[in-house]
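Lecture 7 notes: from sequence to structure.
We start with the chain below.
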Amino acid sequence: MQSSRICRQLFANSILLAFAMPAVYSANAQPNSGEPQWLSTGQIITPLAPNGASFQALNPGLADMPQYTAGQAVTTAVSPDGKTLLILTSGYNLESYTTGANAGNTNPADSNEYVFVFDISKGDAVQRQVVQVPNTYSGIAFNPDGQQFYVSGGWNDNVHIYGLTAGVWSEVPGSPVALGHLALANAALGNFGGFGLEVYPMASGLAVSRNGQMIVVANYENDSISILTQNAGVWAKTGALDLRPGVINPAQTGVPGGEYPYWVSIVGNSTAYVSCIRDREIDVVNIAGTPSLITRIPVPGNPNRSVLSADQSLLYVAQDNSDTVAVINTGTNTVAAEIGVSLPRDLYSNEKKYKGANPNSVAVSADGMNLYVTDGGLNAVAVVSLSRDVSNSHVAGLIPTGFYPNSVSVSPNGKRLYIVNGKSANGPNPGYCHQGVPYINGSSANCNASNQYDFQLTKAGFQTVPTPSSGDLSRLTERVLENDHFGRRMAWDDERKMAELHNKIQHVIYIIKENRTYDQILGDLPVGNGDPSLTQFGEATTPNLHALASNFVDFDNFYDVSEVSGDGWPWSTSARTTDTIEKEIPVNYANRGGNDNAEGTNRNIDVGIAKYALRAEDDPLITIAGGSPNPNLLPGSANVAAPDSAEGGENQGYIWNAANEAGLSVRDYGMFIDLARYNLPAAFGALNIPEDPTPFADHLQVAYSTDPFLSQNYDIYFRGFDNSFPDYFRFTEWNREFQQFDANGGLPALSLVRLMHDHTGNFSTSIAGVNTPELDEADNDYAVGLLVQAVANSKNYKNNTLIFVIEDDSQDGGDHVDAHRSIAFVAGPYVKQGHVESKFYNTVSMLRTIEDILGTPHLNLNDAVAEPMADAFDLDQKTWTFSAAPSALLAGTTLPIPPAAYDQASLSDHPKPLHDAAWWAEHTKGFDFSIEDHLDTDKYNRILWTGTMGDKAYPNTRSGLDLRTNREQLLKSYEKQRSMRPPSSQSLQKPISSVATAGPSM
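Predicted structure tokens for the same chain:
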């Protein structure tokens, strides 16, 4: 009865929240203020909901940026005497110069990671000191004597030693201590010191022996541990152990194990327990004397952080993907129990066993009665009541936190929790330096360059919470369930509509593009909440995207959940990220090591192919890296960053796995492709896969899948991510197969299509003259339009196929509402026409819509409670058409577009790029466009703005204004302002029409 009452109340509250939701998801509260806020995920955070809680940003006190606060807080540690709390950051935390000749370039003095030192001797946390560290990766620990602490140096491949003198912490002589992997690097062979292609070492979690004389460090990218010992007060590396089975015992060559070691706990002075994420095992190592492997303990999830009970008889290990904590008996080295740490079962039964809570740290209360687990995916700390029989332990409740909690510590008396979260809602910038709309009221936004890149706006939070009573915990649990919408039910009309669409639609084509905001593309629409002053690639450049928005639905309140492509691809294909992605991507984007494992490769190795010989055949580069073949390099097909399915299928939590589970056919065009052999330097030219516009006719395989399932269901002639290659030719390859399906039948139920050239780049090597950002965008736009047109003209699939288009992230442009607001499109039968939809939708909403239409299982907790985009559809609107039109910009390329395809009036006075390919190549010299976002993205954004918008001031504001009304006046005012600027600064857009296009193109 109690459970039923709570569920009914949750449902009622969720309905009220849905109606109360603002037109723009971010609340007016300052980002990371602790006030309730909507997130791009659709969730709400309420870190001040617990009675007596406090919440603060982490300010390192930079002299020239006193208001700056850090992001990506990842680890907490309490001193042995319980009086000091350390908070470590590991992530982006790069700041740019804001004035002068270096404006927009990284300011080294202000670009560090940090250890925040808090006095917690009286319960409340008072900041006493900040220690700057060049690079880190999660690892920090006190010496048992409390006089030193240690920080792992990330890709610097070292350990920093800090000592306490007169109440002040400082690095001791001889620190940092090198671990030796960088010394083995040979960059000419693609060996940067870590295992894999162009992989750096990464010193990660570390632990200290009980006697304080030994430190064990997990070498995340070297599949090993290093041992440091102290002699006469001086620390030095004295041992190491490669954890891979085939290295320890040659008879096990090619057997997976010991890979991606992340965390360490030490029992006494002799035994280390190492969490190996990829292989889902805890490696038990004897560290007394020469290190040696004792045993490997298999666990069901991806083990990350661990903590020992007070008597060290039990080890509690947080596990992503299984959403459990493994309890390991250290006497027998066996798993004594698996404790579910997601949602309380009496409030959310989770019969489908959906995952996505992302447990990522664990702490034990002083009395051993409670376990506290940070559930990053739920924005909560799970309070686990521990039973004498640990198998009977259960989640007693949930405590709401900030956005994506990463670590929790408990005060020695058990009365207070210290929690850090790594992310924040970006929201409209509260410090924008002009009021109103400048091109209407005449005010100006002559502001200095500012740090507005997505990750620079992503801030950490520090929350203190008095340990809640059982009654308060019940209230807080309800709050978390409301925040995450676990009581939400679909409206009956929407449910009926989606059921009808499931009956009428047999095919979905899902297109993923790259990196654009709403204002950047559609800010010049005659309708919707767009700011034309931020529009870089308007109607003249992207006529087809504008037609899709005008003829069908303009989603002017749609958000990409992700920050960047590194987490954008997981969100776009699986409706979640794993904790591995959350930890690695900010570090990787800061150029601090780590890898982008989001699309099936691990350490740039195609792990979708299990057998080493077949990998080497597809990618001969792996036989070069390190100087010789290495069958112990990530053997097997496990993917360290992949999500599991709801039923526990390892690495099978993607939309295509769900389609396959439903018995539906899938075809992949360009998603999850190994990119290693594109655009290789001259020294490896023989291995390069050339930019061939007609690979099918030339019998040239240009794509190698990185996903075990997709490898059986993909087009080997459809090129993956490559900025040198126009999307026009990707379309022609897709269309070759589509026309065969249209003639003969057999179109798959789900087609995955990657059209990526709106990423832009590779200006000196691009083919067919598509070699500036404007041309790249126009090429991408036309390819999307041609695909929609092909379906619209199809004889067999026009009336039973829907096309969904999304950006994987929106990091590369300005937007007056939010850094996450982006473009999204739906085209086909039963889609509303000439409609503006301002309801909040996001990446997960689109995936939920595809699932409901195709009848696939849901992927995880996120899409299971998400609302489908039902308001985009009209069951009476079956008739539709679409005609693609190339931007006149493309007339200056050598793409084989028939002259008749162009609007002849636009050709007579067509716009041209502001700068040529040589200008772009010079200004992006040294940039790596081979992988999405594999460059200084903040700097590139500024070059992109200047190169397309001339001397117009770089945008550094987010007004958050609703610009849906008086659009005609706004657009005319902007056109007047634009015409008054010098010619060199005018954007490359034809005058904006003030008349909305209603209905489909004819």
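Points to note: The two ends are 59 Å apart (CA to CA). The chain is about 20% helix and 25% strand.
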